Amino acid sequence: LPAGGPSLRLCSTRVAQEDINKPVIDRIIRVDHAGEYGANRIYAGQMAVLGRSSVGPIIQQMWNQEKDHLKKFDELIVAYRVRPTVLLPFWNVAGFVLGAGTALLGKKGAMACTVAVEESISQHYNNQIRTLVEEDPEKYKELLQVIKQFRDDEQEHHDIGLEHDAEATPAYSVLKTAIQLGCKAAIYLSERI
């Protein structure tokens, strides 16, 4: 996270459970943890293929932010006592394969993957922000702050992908649509399983 930005640390390792809508918060934290885990694996796959290329430092920079996101959701899983999705081993493999596979298409392919995933995640985070605001923006102030910051980071990654010729990938719209359908399925499953 940027230096001087808002602190996203919890004051304690536990959150008062009686004051929250536990099913909603469990679903949000479970899926966001899974999504950040999957994003880490995508960037790991991209770095395995393109880490020493001219785009390697850019991918590494985005991956570093995703590592911070995952660390925060690791903390939130404990603080809110949320069971992680049982699909993490699958997302481990699927994320890496998606990252490496699109990176094998070259820099543009990796960036097309980044645009598709980050657009999906930004929209997903926006939906969660709306849900928490409807629930009680003051009660969920800290969680809203985290999700808004991470949404902004994901949008920045999306924009970086566009700046690095993602749309010039052969069959870009087909690739983007396929990846986004996979993201929607992963979100749906990770919220529930």
UniProtKB/TrEMBL annotation:
It comes from the Eukaryota. Transmembrane segments: none annotated. One of its GO terms (biological process) is determination of adult lifespan. The keyword Transmembrane helix does not apply. InterPro entries: Ferritin-like, Ferritin-like_SF, Ubq_synth_Coq7. Pfam families: COQ7. Keywords: Iron, Membrane, Metal-binding, Monooxygenase, Oxidoreductase, Ubiquinone biosynthesis. One of its GO terms (molecular function) is 3-demethoxyubiquinol 3-hydroxylase activity. Pathway: Cofactor biosynthesis; ubiquinone biosynthesis. GO terms for cellular component: mitochondrial inner membrane; nucleus. HAMAP family: COQ7. This is COQ7 protein. It comes from Grantiella picta.
